[in-house]
Specification:
There is one protein chain. The chain has one domain (8-216). The strands form 2 sheets. Strands 3, 4, 5, 6, 7, 8 and 9 form a 7-stranded mixed β-sheet that branches. The protein has 232 residues and is α+β, with helices and mostly antiparallel strands. It has 8 helices and 9 strands. The chain has helices at 8-21, 28-32, 37-49, 55-58, 72-79, 104-110, 126-138, 172-181; strands spanning 50-51, 63-64, 83-84, 93-98, 114-117, 142-151, 158-168, 188-190, 209-213. α7 runs antiparallel to α8.
Length: 232
């Protein structure tokens, strides 16, 4: 884990801005304190290293310049695909990746410091999501993972929160089989230029994706609070 390389005043101003933007009015310092100062400092460092792209021209999303906390291998992959800055997200995310070209499961196999998790429930595991993605790709369907990436609590680790799965396919049996992997949880169809996977991966706005968005579901193993969504 990197040390706080940002001046403490800059980091404190950043945290105060997040509290203000998100109207965190219940023990805001306790909320921020769920994560280490090093995790917040890494998030600020990445924020300062991202250049917003002209999406209309490049279509490649934002660009990440070298940082001390993002491994070079990960930075190279991100800059060759699509990601976006998390903006005022009240968690120490580095960025959000939504791109069918990234195989997070293969990357985790290759790089042990990359830790996959479902930040919203322990009932749908990364192993189950890997099985679903493998099944979709075996049948020729496009699978898109919504991943929130950031520094882990342990030194040198990178957390990849698998926040949603989108599958583009018109074969209903595939959707049924994936739902069975997820214990009977069925998806909902989504399309149009405003849907999450269409930001980069849809062939056209008419492409229909079947969406499992864990953040929008209720889970018996998690309390309904604003801290859900990132590893602590």
């Amino acid at each position: 884990m990197i040390k706080d390389q940002q001046p403490s005043g800059e980091l404190d101003k950043y945290l105060a801005w997040l509290i203000f933007e998100n109207k965190i009015d219940i023990d805001p310092h306790g909320y921020i304190g769920q994560w280490t100062r090093e995790q917040w400092a890494a998030a600020l460092e990445v924020r300062n290293a991202i250049t917003a792209a002209d999406h209309a021209v490049s279509g490649t999303g934002d660009y990440l310049h070298p940082t001390t906390c993002v491994p070079e291998w990960l930075r190279d992959i991100l800059n060759a695909t699509w990601f976006r800055h998390p903006g005022s997200d009240p968690a120490p995310h580095w960025l959000t990746s939504i791109d069918h070209r990234i195989d997070w499961f293969a990357l985790a196999d290759e790089h042990p410091q990359l830790v996959l998790e479902n930040p919203f429930t322990d009932l749908i595991t990364p192993t189950m999501m890997r099985e679903a993605v493998d099944l979709a790709r075996t049948r020729g369907a496009q699978a898109v993972i919504h991943a929130d990436v950031g520094a882990g609590r342990d030194s040198g680790t990178v957390i990849c929160g698998l926040s949603a799965l989108y599958v583009a396919d018109d074969v209903s049996t595939l959707v049924v089989d994936i739902a069975e992997i997820f214990g009977g949880i069925t998806p909902y169809p989504t399309s149009g230029s405003g849907c999450m996977p269409a930001l980069n991966t849809a062939i056209s706005p008419d492409t229909v994706y079947y969406a499992w968005e864990w953040s929008g579901m209720s889970w018996p193993d998690r309390s309904d609070d604003s801290s859900a969504g990132f590893s602590v």
